[in-house]
């Protein structure tokens, strides 16, 4: 049989329920003048309620013991201990914690016990009375099923929330990698230039130091924008600029040029606004690619091409840097692979590899029809 996992309530509550119901059952048995108070009748009365303490741990076993005790008491002593309250409790428990097949079995056994009880207690067998008990059992069954579905839905939502948190962490890690890698590459390069020429060419050193300052401030601003999403209370959201998109590419290119890399920017097609996620994807691809050129290509020229096609956004970043430079995708876990995964998120494709004539090319294709 299928076992449905639901969070167990504290055992104390089940023990309390079993204790109270057992006490009431025994008090009723002893207080009735026509009741046969014997060790066997007391034992059956206890078995009709006490096992409920373990109802969430052994629901099927408890249900069979309780129903067996009720049926035996009805046949032997013409009595239905606790008026069948234990029967309703086990019906609810099995419906909550076990499969529908198990619940159906317990329901059938409970109806048999009910019919026997009406026959043995000397009451005239009336179908409507049995039907009323059946309705109570169905009510307990439905309530148990509803509780089970609620618990299952809660677990599913919790799992989805955990997955969403995990995806957001990965996204933030990638964004932090892109931001830190890009700006620190510019800072490192310009700091080296300043150190090299500070005595021979103070003017150039001054420009390099200014670029370091600009890159540092830009890095802090980008990180502030990103990490601000972790705040519960954003306050006045208008003071925070949105994530960068394709309209900020010229600014990015100028910053890279200031770091000493010659970059050509070519935009073709009809420029139009795309969803923020897709624009951020394209922007980060350009940023990461140009940063890699700065870090690995040596003396080189780069070219950024953005084509707004009718159905496809194509972004290409190429350079003519040192040929044969190593490309280790495993070492670029948050680089090329991160760009590729981000592209796939928006239904796009990203390819990267060396050019035949030397240098390197990263090509991104995003279907614009699917992004609208």
From TrEMBL:
<protein>
    <recommendedName>
        <fullName>histidine kinase</fullName>
        <ecNumber>2.7.13.3</ecNumber>
    </recommendedName>
</protein>
<keyword id="KW-0547">Nucleotide-binding</keyword>
<feature type="domain" description="Signal transduction histidine kinase subgroup 3 dimerisation and phosphoacceptor">
    <location>
        <begin position="168"/>
        <end position="231"/>
    </location>
</feature>
<keyword id="KW-0902">Two-component regulatory system</keyword>
<keyword id="KW-1133">Transmembrane helix</keyword>
<dbReference type="GO" id="GO:0005524">
    <property type="term" value="F:ATP binding"/>
</dbReference>
<dbReference type="GO" id="GO:0000155">
    <property type="term" value="F:phosphorelay sensor kinase activity"/>
</dbReference>
<feature type="transmembrane region" description="Helical">
    <location>
        <begin position="125"/>
        <end position="144"/>
    </location>
</feature>
<dbReference type="GO" id="GO:0016020">
    <property type="term" value="C:membrane"/>
</dbReference>
<dbReference type="Pfam" id="PF02518">
    <property type="entry name" value="HATPase_c"/>
</dbReference>
<dbReference type="InterPro" id="IPR050482">
    <property type="entry name" value="Sensor_HK_TwoCompSys"/>
</dbReference>
<dbReference type="InterPro" id="IPR011712">
    <property type="entry name" value="Sig_transdc_His_kin_sub3_dim/P"/>
</dbReference>
<feature type="transmembrane region" description="Helical">
    <location>
        <begin position="60"/>
        <end position="77"/>
    </location>
</feature>
<keyword id="KW-0067">ATP-binding</keyword>
<dbReference type="InterPro" id="IPR003594">
    <property type="entry name" value="HATPase_dom"/>
</dbReference>
<keyword id="KW-0418">Kinase</keyword>
<feature type="transmembrane region" description="Helical">
    <location>
        <begin position="97"/>
        <end position="118"/>
    </location>
</feature>
<keyword id="KW-0808">Transferase</keyword>
<keyword id="KW-0472">Membrane</keyword>
<dbReference type="Pfam" id="PF07730">
    <property type="entry name" value="HisKA_3"/>
</dbReference>
<dbReference type="GO" id="GO:0046983">
    <property type="term" value="F:protein dimerization activity"/>
</dbReference>
<feature type="transmembrane region" description="Helical">
    <location>
        <begin position="36"/>
        <end position="53"/>
    </location>
</feature>
<keyword id="KW-0597">Phosphoprotein</keyword>
<feature type="transmembrane region" description="Helical">
    <location>
        <begin position="12"/>
        <end position="30"/>
    </location>
</feature>
<feature type="domain" description="Histidine kinase/HSP90-like ATPase">
    <location>
        <begin position="282"/>
        <end position="369"/>
    </location>
</feature>
<keyword id="KW-0812">Transmembrane</keyword>
<dbReference type="InterPro" id="IPR036890">
    <property type="entry name" value="HATPase_C_sf"/>
</dbReference>
């Amino acid at each position: 049989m299928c076992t449905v996992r639901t969070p167990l309530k504290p055992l104390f509550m089940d023990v309390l329920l079993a204790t109270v119901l057992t006490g009431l059952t025994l008090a009723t048995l002893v207080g009735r003048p026509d009741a046969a108070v014997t060790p066997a009748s007391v034992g059956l009365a206890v078995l009709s309620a006490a096992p409920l303490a373990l109802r969430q741990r052994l629901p099927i076993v408890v249900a069979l013991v309780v129903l067996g005790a009720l049926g035996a008491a009805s046949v032997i002593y013409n009595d239905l201990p606790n008026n069948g309250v234990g029967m309703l409790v086990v019906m609810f428990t099995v419906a909550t914690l076990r499969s529908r097949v198990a619940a159906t079995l317990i329901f059938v056994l409970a109806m048999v016990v009910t019919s026997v009880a009406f026959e043995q207690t000397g009451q005239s067998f009336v179908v409507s009375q049995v039907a009323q008990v059946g309705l109570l059992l169905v009510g307990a069954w439905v309530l148990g099923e509803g509780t089970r579905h609620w618990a299952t839905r809660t677990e599913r939502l919790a799992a989805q929330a955990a997955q969403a948190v995990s995806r957001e962490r990965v996204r933030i890690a990638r964004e932090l990698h892109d931001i830190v890698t890009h700006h620190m590459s510019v800072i490192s390069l310009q700091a080296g230039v300043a150190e090299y020429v500070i005595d021979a060419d103070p003017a150039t050193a001054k420009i390099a130091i200014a670029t370091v300052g600009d890159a540092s401030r830009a890095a802090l601003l980008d990180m502030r924008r990103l990490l601000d999403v972790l705040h519960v209370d954003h306050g006045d959201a208008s003071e925070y600029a949105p994530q960068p998109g394709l309209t900020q590419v010229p600014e990015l290119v100028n910053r890279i040029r200031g770091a000493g890399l010659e970059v050509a920017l070519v935009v073709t097609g009809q420029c139009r606004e795309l969803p923020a996620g897709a624009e951020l994807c394209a922007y980060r691809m350009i940023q990461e690619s140009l940063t890699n050129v700065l870090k690995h290509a040596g003396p080189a020229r780069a070219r950024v091409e953005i084509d707004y096609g009718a159905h496809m956004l194509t972004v290409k970043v190429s350079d003519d840097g040192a040929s044969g430079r190593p490309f280790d995708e495993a070492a670029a876990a948050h680089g090329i692979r991160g760009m590729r995964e981000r592209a796939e998120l928006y239904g796009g494709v990203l390819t990267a590899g060396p050019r035949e004539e030397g240098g390197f090319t990263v090509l991104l294709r995003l279907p614009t029809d699917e992004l609208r």
